Task: inverse folding
């Protein structure tokens, strides 16, 4: 939440040191307008500011206790009745002396209290600055701090569970364990250099290279986890595919519950890919889908429509789930099958949706369902976008298919950030060079470089400006 304090009361412009500032910081950590609003203050002056606002000295025995207080300005005017909780360093989120001030959630009350905090010497926190200080002071790892951001942004149950596991330190423990093993290999290789004339097998180059294999395998699995991780966090890509006037856009709108795509009896109405995100629930869990409504496929299209069709095929190839919408009255197999043959259907989940069920007789339902089963070995799903019959069943089937695509082992570490993938790939390249090294000196150098490549995942060896860039994407108040 970005506060709208008057510019004169925002002292951050006077502190060019930014994230490296030692000044006491303050910010709201809940949005205004609710029943309760919480303000956070952290830094060496936090407890003095709390004492000034409450009119009582905050002592070590008050640590982590909720204290009812009347907050007053230096003029004596009451700002609000509040609950103030002091945290004495290092037993706080940031590792510094801190305050959490729970006031009534009126935006004006929150502004007045925060203005009073500014007047007492604090400045408005930068985005993510509380988490930055927590990492800087050893209260959490970088990956745990990033999990805070992912927890706030989670749109579905799978992303939420993944962020909670990451917050518990699962990713940091795995990567730090790999780093520690690489450090041990460095130590052993340097011992091998020192005792090269004594022919000690345990520290010989062939024996040390053998130990690289399992570490590289773990790193390779991490890189491979990114596809699932990105889908867990951002959504599973789904393409709605078919001939013109098959009912694709009507089905798309029915799923969304709104008229997002234009629907017309004229072929070629949809000429580009229309994308939306949708959360669906299945088996008690929500999953996010990235839906793409696409142009109908037909011969003889004009140049602009042909571009849209190429985008349709590209979207279908790149998606995890393919929803093939077929006009129940006019399937048009001779036109549809050539386009389906250009897609590897075995590499993705496919659902066949038979539209316009309200126009078909029961016998026609059975005939076309049997044809779908015979051609593709799966069941078709009948729907009517006029009365919405069957749409809920298809939505449940979509959610179940998406969940199958993103399934993972219990507490399996999954990467969700492309910069982490690049870092692990860099470490793998270093280990490959170490495996091909001709002597222990080169081996030790390459292994040490591999350790350095893992810095972005554990927060070590990262320059302060890079750390600042990472935290600038956070919410203010976190």
Result:
């Amino acid at each position: 939440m970005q506060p709208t304090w008057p510019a004169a009361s925002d002292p951050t412009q006077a502190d060019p040191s930014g994230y490296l500032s030692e000044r006491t910081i303050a910010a709201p950590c809940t949005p205004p307008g609710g029943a309760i609003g919480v303000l956070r203050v952290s830094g060496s002056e936090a407890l003095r500011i709390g004492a000034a606002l409450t009119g009582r000295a905050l002592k070590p025995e008050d640590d982590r206790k909720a204290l009812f207080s009347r907050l007053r300005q230096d003029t004596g005017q009451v700002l609000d009745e509040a609950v103030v909780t002091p945290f004495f360093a290092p037993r706080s989120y940031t590792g510094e002396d801190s305050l959490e001030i729970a006031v009534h959630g009126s935006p004006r009350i929150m502004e007045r209290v925060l203005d009073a905090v500014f007047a007492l010497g604090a400045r408005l926190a930068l985005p993510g600055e509380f988490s930055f200080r927590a990492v800087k002071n050893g209260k959490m790892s970088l990956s745990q701090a990033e999990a805070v951001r992912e927890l706030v942004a989670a749109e579905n149950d799978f992303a939420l569970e993944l962020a909670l596991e990451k917050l518990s330190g699962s990713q940091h423990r795995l990567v730090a364990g790999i780093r520690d093993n690489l450090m041990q290999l460095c130590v052993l290789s340097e011992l091998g250099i020192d005792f090269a004339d004594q022919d000690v097998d345990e520290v010989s180059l062939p024996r040390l290279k053998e130990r690289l294999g399992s570490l590289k395998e773990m790193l390779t699995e991490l890189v491979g986890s990114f596809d699932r991780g990105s889908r867990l966090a951002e959504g599973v890509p789904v393409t709605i595919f078919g001939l013109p006037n098959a009912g694709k856009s009507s089905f798309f709108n029915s799923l969304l519950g709104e008229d997002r795509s234009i629907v017309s009896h004229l072929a070629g109405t949809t000429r580009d890919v229309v994308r939306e995100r949708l959360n669906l629930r299945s088996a008690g869990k929500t999953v996010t889908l990235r839906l793409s409504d696409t142009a109908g496929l037909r011969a003889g299209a004009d140049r602009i429509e042909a571009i849209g069709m190429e985008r349709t095929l590209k979207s279908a190839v790149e998606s995890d789930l393919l929803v093939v919408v077929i006009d129940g009255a006019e399937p048009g197999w001779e036109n549809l099958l050539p386009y389906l043959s250009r897609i590897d259907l075995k590499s993705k989940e496919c659902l066949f949706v038979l539209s316009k069920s309200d126009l078909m007789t029961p016998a026609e339902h059975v005939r076309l369902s049997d044809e779908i089963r015979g051609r593709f070995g799966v069941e078709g799903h009948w729907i009517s976008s006029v009365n919405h019959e069957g749409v809920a069943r298809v939505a449940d089937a979509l959610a179940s298919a998406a969940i199958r695509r993103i399934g993972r082992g219990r507490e399996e570490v999954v990467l969700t950030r492309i910069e982490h993938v690049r870092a692990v790939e860099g470490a793998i390249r270093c280990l490959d060079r170490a495996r091909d090294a001709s002597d222990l000196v080169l081996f030790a150098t390459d292994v040490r470089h591999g350790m350095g490549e893992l810095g972005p995942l554990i927060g070590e060896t990262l320059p302060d400006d890079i750390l600042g860039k990472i935290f600038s994407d956070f919410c203010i108040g976190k």
Notes: The CA atoms of residues 30 and 38 lie 6 Å apart. The mean pLDDT is 85. The two ends are 10 Å apart (CA to CA).
